[in-house]
TrEMBL record:
<dbReference type="GO" id="GO:0035025">
    <property type="term" value="P:positive regulation of Rho protein signal transduction"/>
</dbReference>
<keyword id="KW-0675">Receptor</keyword>
<dbReference type="InterPro" id="IPR017452">
    <property type="entry name" value="GPCR_Rhodpsn_7TM"/>
</dbReference>
<dbReference type="InterPro" id="IPR003944">
    <property type="entry name" value="Prot_act_rcpt_4"/>
</dbReference>
<dbReference type="GO" id="GO:0015057">
    <property type="term" value="F:thrombin-activated receptor activity"/>
</dbReference>
<keyword id="KW-0807">Transducer</keyword>
<dbReference type="InterPro" id="IPR003912">
    <property type="entry name" value="Protea_act_rcpt"/>
</dbReference>
<dbReference type="Pfam" id="PF00001">
    <property type="entry name" value="7tm_1"/>
</dbReference>
<comment type="similarity">
    <text>Belongs to the G-protein coupled receptor 1 family.</text>
</comment>
<dbReference type="GO" id="GO:0005886">
    <property type="term" value="C:plasma membrane"/>
</dbReference>
<feature type="domain" description="G-protein coupled receptors family 1 profile">
    <location>
        <begin position="94"/>
        <end position="340"/>
    </location>
</feature>
<feature type="disulfide bond">
    <location>
        <begin position="149"/>
        <end position="228"/>
    </location>
</feature>
<keyword id="KW-0297">G-protein coupled receptor</keyword>
<feature type="transmembrane region" description="Helical">
    <location>
        <begin position="319"/>
        <end position="343"/>
    </location>
</feature>
<feature type="signal peptide">
    <location>
        <begin position="1"/>
        <end position="21"/>
    </location>
</feature>
<keyword id="KW-0472">Membrane</keyword>
<comment type="function">
    <text>Receptor for activated thrombin or trypsin coupled to G proteins that stimulate phosphoinositide hydrolysis. May play a role in platelets activation.</text>
</comment>
């Protein structure tokens, strides 16, 4: 009787072990088609999917060794933080100086209000980067706590899409100034621009609120690492976050990109009718659209591809490329000051006066690149 009981116990243990092995093989590289059928039915969560394990009342996540190796690769712990460091070193002084000059030396025009808010959005994005730089240089380890992980994730995405929306406002404002200079004068006021900027900030905050309300950091079992946003529980609100990111990309990127392209195209037509006088400004206007496409399209396309693809076929490979594209999108914060501010000769002159003769007050008002275009071939509309 004891032998029969032991046999039953061994059979139960063997069956339980096979069930566990089958669950792990769902995201293993050696999984079969039948085993992969279940995770293929739902999209991936907004990061690399991991299985939960509770040890001593602490929730850990498990991911395949191949995926863990990719997270610790040279691309993640060397290339990405180096890109963020470059953005921080170049973007911080460039945007801070531009905001300082716009706030203290610029005449309060509609374009000035939009450009000040754009510089502020770029600065807020750059201020988050030291935490991300430390995170990647530490080998994907987040030592700053859950609250700061949520805040930095929400600020990073929020300010990125806030910049896109503000760029669209700048482009639309320049279209009205060039194509309809007289009829648009009634509502192209600093007060109207301030209201539009407030709406953009509120919209960006609302769009990224779900990221701030959900847990973002989890420790990896047996790795001694706490990851922020990169690995999240498998099948946790998968459908909701897929729809959320589709709405985020559509409303905060694709639609603004379309509006920016249309308004910039209309501006280009007006400029090209003026002949060679505005050739330089026309090139810079085209550069605005090209820069937005180059910096933001890869990350948004990979975002949708990753979150709409079956988990069992990805294993974090596409997400690694997505992290690199996010670092590339942050580079736009370095490009904005030189495309929108320092391209103007008048702006550069005001910067020189502000730095070298800061105590000397002048009555000459600073015109932004949009306002000086009709007078200077070096200004951008």
């Amino acid at each position: 009787m004891g032998t029969l009981g032991d046999t039953r116990l061994l059979l139960c243990c063997a069956f339980w072990g096979l069930c566990l092995a089958s669950d792990y093989d769902d995201y293993s590289q050696n999984s079969t088609n039948d085993q992969a059928a279940t995770p293929e039915a739902t999209p991936c969560p907004r990061a690399i999917p991991g299985d939960q394990a509770t040890v001593n009342n602490v929730t850990y996540l498990l991911i395949p060794e191949a995926t863990r190796a990719q997270l610790g690769s040279a691309v993640t712990v060397r290339l990405i933080p180096c890109l963020y460091s470059l953005v921080f070193l170049l973007g911080l002084p460039a945007n801070a100086l531009a905001l300082w000059v716009l706030a203290t030396r610029a005449e309060r025009l509609t374009s000035t209000v939009f450009l000040m808010n754009l510089a502020a959005a770029d600065l807020l994005l750059i201020c988050v980067l030291p935490f991300k730089i430390s995170y990647y240089f530490l080998g994907n380890h987040w030592p700053f706590g859950e609250a700061l992980c949520r805040l930095s994730t929400a600020l990073f995405y929020g300010n990125m899409y806030c910049s896109v929306l503000l760029l669209t406002c700048v482009s639309a404002d320049r279209y009205l100034a060039v194509a309809h200079p007289f009829s648009s004068r009634a509502f192209r006021t600093p007060a109207f621009a301030a209201g539009a900027c407030a709406a953009v900030w509120l919209c960006a905050a609302a769009l990224t609120l779900p990221l701030a309300l959900q847990r973002q950091s989890y420790p990896l079992l047996g790795a001694g690492l706490t990851l922020c946003h990169d690995v999240l529980p498998r099948h946790e609100d998968d459908g909701f976050y897929f729809r959320y990111f589709v709405a985020l990309v559509s409303g905060a990127f694709l639609l603004p990109l379309l509006l920016l392209a249309l308004s910039s195209g209309a501006v280009l037509r007006v400029l090209l009718r003026g002949g060679g006088r505005y050739c330089h400004a026309a090139k810079l206007t085209a550069l605005v659209v090209v820069a937005l496409v180059v910096f933001y399209v890869p990350s948004n396309v990979l975002l949708l591809l990753h979150y709409s693809s079956p988990c069992s076929k990805l294993h974090g490979r596409l997400y690694l490329g997505y992290m690199v594209s996010l670092a590339l999108s942050a580079c736009n914060s370095c490009a904005d000051p030189f495309v929108y501010y320092y391209v103007s000769e008048d702006f550069r002159e005001k910067v020189r006066r502000r730095i070298f003769r800061g105590s000397k007050k002048t009555t000459t008002s600073l015109k932004t690149s949009k306002e000086t275009l009709p007078r200077s071939k070096h200004s951008l509309v």
